[in-house]
Design a protein that fits this description.
heterodimer, A: about 170 residues, about 20% helix, B: about 180 residues, Rossmann fold, globular
Chain lengths: ~170, ~180
């Protein structure tokens, strides 16, 4: 569908910035080194053959305890979906983020729409986006402790803000 | 010429007036709101029970309809709305989410609105049919008439009146209480 995107990437980034590229059911994807995240994204937007003007989605994946995933591989993936309105093609970028230092460069300087998505990924997965202008929680309340979509967050643990108190006037 | 007399206690008359003039505050957060609109509209017509007038200010309402899922983050807002309502006041949990959290068992959803405000009538269903809502409203009217609403009991207890505890919590009277009542 959009092999041209992968061709442009592999031609441009030959210094080990790309870990792996692939295509599945007509959807192209590329796995990018964390250090090259910003450079690859900027190239995809500015290159006349790719022209990824539109930011579609950004989220994170927690691979903790996944049996099909290598033990020593980094725990988190940050995933971004891009679309070119003028050339009508898409690409999906992954980047591995380790548990010890869950941080990656922000894409807000390239696509302003990434702002709230990165806040969401920070809120729910605890991935820090370096250089983000306003990295606060967006869905959970500020008093909330932890990151609820991490696989090691107890799935029914609640952090109530208010409860009825026995003995008080109802 | 003849006079007809009807005698009753003042509380009974007041409660009769209360149960037929409920001013509701709909706290609508989710899909149950569609069924709530259906109840309020002409086909099911909650106006038949004197409760047709949604006041969008809690200060003018005495019946809080909690319609839909309550998240932990909404807890303080819900509590504040309840606190702002004039007494006596009643609360109906509309649908399983407001009653128990429903199928949401996760970090964000409150397991029932009664964690934060006292609920008088729970309506099951996802969402409940309008008939269930009207049934619940009639149940609530019964409780109001008997003075069994949470807020009514609180007020009566503070004023030193008799509180019909037996009617709402028969289990707390100990074994055999229900049999004695029937006998």
């Amino acid at each position: 569908m959009a092999q041209i995107v992968l061709d442009r990437l592999t031609a441009q980034f030959t210094g080990g910035e790309l870990v792996e590229v692939g295509s599945n059911l007509g959807n192209e994807w590329a796995r990018v080194k964390r250090e090259s995240w910003l450079a690859v994204a900027k190239f995809l937007r500015d290159d006349p053959a790719t022209k990824m003007e539109m930011f579609i989605d950004l989220t994170a994946v927690d691979r903790l305890g996944l049996r099909t995933w290598p033990e020593d591989a980094p725990r988190f993936d940050v995933v971004v979906h891009l679309y070119s309105v003028s050339l009508k093609h898409r690409v999906r970028l992954y980047s591995a983020v380790p548990e010890e230092d869950p941080s990656i460069d922000t894409l807000v300087s390239i696509w302003a729409g990434a702002n709230w998505y990165e806040r969401e990924a920070y809120d729910l997965y605890g991935v820090r986006f370096k250089g983000h202008p306003d990295l606060r929680r967006i869905l959970m309340y500020p008093e909330f402790v932890g990151h609820p979509l991490r696989k090691d967050y107890p799935k029914e643990k609640r952090q109530p803000l208010v409860r009825r108190q026995a003995g008080t006037r109802e | 010429m003849g006079f007809e007399f009807h005698t009753t206690s003042l509380r009974s008359a007041v409660n009769w007036a209360r149960k037929w003039s409920l001013f509701q505050y709909p706290f609508v957060t989710a899909c149950c709101g569609m069924e709530f609109m259906s109840v309020a509209a002409s086909k099911y017509d909650i106006a038949r029970f004197g409760a047709e007038f949604p006041r969008f200010s809690p200060r003018q309402a005495d019946l809080l309809f909690i319609v839909g899922t309550i998240t932990e983050r909404q807890g303080p807002a819900l509590r504040r709305i309840y606190d702002q309502m004039c007494e006596p006041k009643w609360v109906v949990a509309f649908g399983v989410c407001a009653s128990t959290g429903g199928f949401y068992q996760n970090y964000a959803t409150m397991p029932g609105a009664d964690q934060v405000v006292p609920v008088d009538v729970y309506i099951p269903g996802c969402p409940p049919r309008p008939e269930q809502v009207l049934d619940a409203l009639m149940l609530l009217q019964d409780r109001i008439q008997k003075g069994e609403g949470h807020s009514q009991i609180t007020i009566d207890a503070e004023r030193g009146y008799d509180v019909p505890i037996a009617a709402i919590r028969p289990k707390q009277l100990g074994p055999g209480a229900a049999a004695k009542k029937e006998g």
